[in-house]
Amino acid sequence: MKEYTFNKAFEQLDAPLNREAFLKNFSRISELIFETENIRERAEIYTNVMDNARAVGYEYEAEQTLQTTALERGEPELWEVPESFDRCSLIQPFPMQSLPPLLRDYLQAVADYVQVVPEMAVLPLLSVLALCVQGKAVIKHTGNSHTEPLNLYTITVASPGERKSGSLKEFMRPVEEFQENYNRVHAVEIEEYRTERAFLENQKSNAMRGKNADLHTAKAITKQIAELEEKHRLVLNVSDATPEALAMEMYTQGGKIGIIDDEGSIFDVLSGIYSSGQANINIFLKAYDGSNYTILRRTKDNIELKKPLLTMGLMVQPDHFQEAMNNKQFSGRGFIHRFLFSFPESKAGYLKMSSPDIPETLQKQYRDLIFHLLRMPESDSLPVIQCGKEAELLFSDYHEHLQKEIRDGGIFENLKEWVSKHFARALRIAGILHVCEHSPTEILTGQTAMNSIEIAMWAENQALNALSGSASEPQEIKNAKHILNKLKKSDKDIISKHELLILCRPLKSAECDEPLDLLEDMNCIRIEIIKNGERGKPKERIKVNPLIKLNQ
């Protein structure tokens, strides 16, 4: 009955309005605001009422009436839904038809089961696939002899409570099962290798010390150690690691590893939070395209990586993402421009009690695919995926499109660094899709090229949302975002201007004025002027919309 009343009442407001019609229905519609105790639902109804009040020039009177009613009823102050800095209306849906049938069906099944939009899960899926095939094939550039590896860097940005973990877990499950099976089967030989190596190293140490030191024996043992076939536990993925620890683990794993994580903890490491702000990000730059990398160590042997490859699939909160975007080390050295981005729509507040299980047959087919990809042979001479004529023509057109749009006046004129790497990303995506259905030695078809281009064009839209604003947005916007982030983390619902300045250091008072006005226009805060006696200087205090803290 309540839903019917709500819908019927607002049917009249959805039509072209005039002042008389609005006033006639105002009292009846306003009552709906107080029928719910849910803070978000109340804000949505209040926002709807106020939008219609503004349309007929009745904004001030409506606000005063409704706030007074709330006060008289002993209800909390009314707030409209805060606006977002994200241009969510520009975000395009992911082209599901561009995935092979199995991956498309599994992605949709996971999204339905976890109750997220496909855009929440698609980059984690692509990252897991890249993790499985990196270092097992390369794809040839369509215009020259250059080849691209099949690893990817991706970031999915979503607020807490948006079920990031649930999305990632379903894709990683067979990867973790494969790793666990491998380590169980090879446990004895791994331990035997460790024991034999430790024994030989101890013998070598003894041969080099004391009165009975024997260089000949030490050399012979060194040769024995070098000839040992290395056996290590399989580690396919780590959540975070220092650059040196990551390089060492990559060396142990044959130069390849993944960082697929639903917390984005690696950003803290990369920002140098554990090393006085001096983290070395070189390994993350080199391992994107397989460039040789060496770490020089004073007390131990150097770590030399030949053609290392890293796949990153991160799921981060908006604040975490913004901090990364503002990190000069990331943007200045092109690290952030190596990523694909996704900004999924929130489904919070619309979740159902139950959801359909992922069909067992589909789970088995996906598991079998992951196991097949992980078992693909590795060699120093990697198979090269060649594009057919139709694929070459499609990629040529796409390359021309990208070049045209980074010229002055093009839609990517401010994203040149990201776009300069994007054609290669399109090739990588094509290679990943290809090996999910075909042998690397088979020719890549025009259909696969078209599918990868559709995904790449969707990624263009996401990158515009991620990068264009940060590259050129006014300082006022940056300061407003900084203030909003601090208010979200504060435990205060009302804060004085003086307290705000302490909270938002190093911003000065004058630097806060316009950003605060902007945040008020966005319904994030309310600024009130408090009189300080008859002669005292009026003081400002800021009320914080409780919804912005719910959105953390």
- Which blocks of ≥5 consecutive residues have pLDDT under 50? 1-16
Helix content: 40-55%
Principal-axis shape? globular
**SS-derived structural category:** alpha/beta
Question: Helical region count?
Answer: 23
Oligomer kind: single chain
Radius of gyration: 29 Å
Largest sheet, in brief, is: 4 strands, parallel
Structure, described:
With about 550 residues, this protein is an alpha/beta fold. It is built from 23 helices and twelve strands. Mean pLDDT is about 85; it is low at about 1-15.
Task: Summarize this structure as a short list of keywords or feature phrases.
single chain, alpha/beta, three-stranded mixed beta sheet, 23 helices, globular
Question: How does the SSE layout of this entry go?
Answer:
Layout: H1 2-14, H2 19-31, H3 39-55, H4 59-72, H5 101-114, H6 118-133, E1 138-140, E2 147-148, E3 153-157, H7 164-185, H8 187-207, H9 215-227, H10 243-252, E4 256-261, H11 266-270, H12 282-289, E5 293-295, E6 303-305, E7 309-316, H13 318-325, H14 328-332, E8 339-342, H15 360-374, E9 384-385, H16 389-405, H17 416-420, H18 422-435, H19 446-472, H20 475-489, E10 494-496, H21 497-503, H22 509-521, E11 525-532, E12 536-544, H23 546-550
Parallel strand pairs: 1-9, 3-7, 3-8, 4-7
Antiparallel strand pairs: 1-2, 5-6, 10-12, 11-12
Helix pairs in contact: 1-2, 2-3, 3-4, 5-6, 5-15, 6-7, 7-15, 8-9, 16-19, 18-19, 20-22
